[in-house]
Amino acid sequence: MRLKSIAVSNVTPQKAADNLVSAALTYGGSDNITVIVIDVLDDGIADQTRKHLTRGVIATFVSFLALFAATVAVFFLFVSSEWYLGINGTTVGVYRGIPTTIAGINMSSLVETTSIEIKDLPDAVQDSLADGIRVKNEDEAHSTVENYRKQIDDANNKAVKKKEDAQSGGTPTTETTTSTTSSGGE
């Protein structure tokens, strides 16, 4: 070990050779000592370090790429499991996804167009539909649409009944009697 430490602690091969000869003589070597020092310019350690570093960088990159892909997959699974009611032209539409756009990508798709006209719904519902009314699943979306349909039908029936009541009560039938009186002078 002592020889190795002397050999590697010197800056030049000549200096290492001189120090090795001196050490050999000091520790009892004979007068004729020969030392050959070879200066290795590339010991391969740099290549091993570079390969190790490259593998580490590639492994880290692949790990982050896999994590990113998993995150995107989970996000799209979440998005595809969401449902909402929204405006589709002039009618109510049933949508799958979330009512937003990310990086120019629409996060929802129209699943069904209903026959319910937006104008027939109360203003508050119209405003909510403009933002998207989230529902748990497709069945709840259909149930909500049917509730809207019943509300519209009930409102129409009340309007018709009110109109009929107004027409029948608005022109009352009254009897008029006339009486004549004569002034007598005969």
TrEMBL record:
InterPro entries: BofC_C, PPM-type-like_dom_sf. The chain crosses the membrane at residues 57-79. The keyword RNA-binding does not apply. Residues 155-186 are annotated as: Disordered. Residues 82-148 form the Bypass of forespore C C-terminal domain. Pfam families: BofC_C (PF08955). Residues 155-166 have a biased composition (Basic and acidic residues). The keyword Transmembrane helix applies. Residues 168-186 have a biased composition (Low complexity). Signal peptide: none annotated. Gene3D superfamilies: PPM-type phosphatase domain. This is BofC C-terminal domain-containing protein. It comes from Lancefieldella parvula. The lineage of its organism: Bacteria, Bacillati, Actinomycetota, Coriobacteriia, Coriobacteriales.
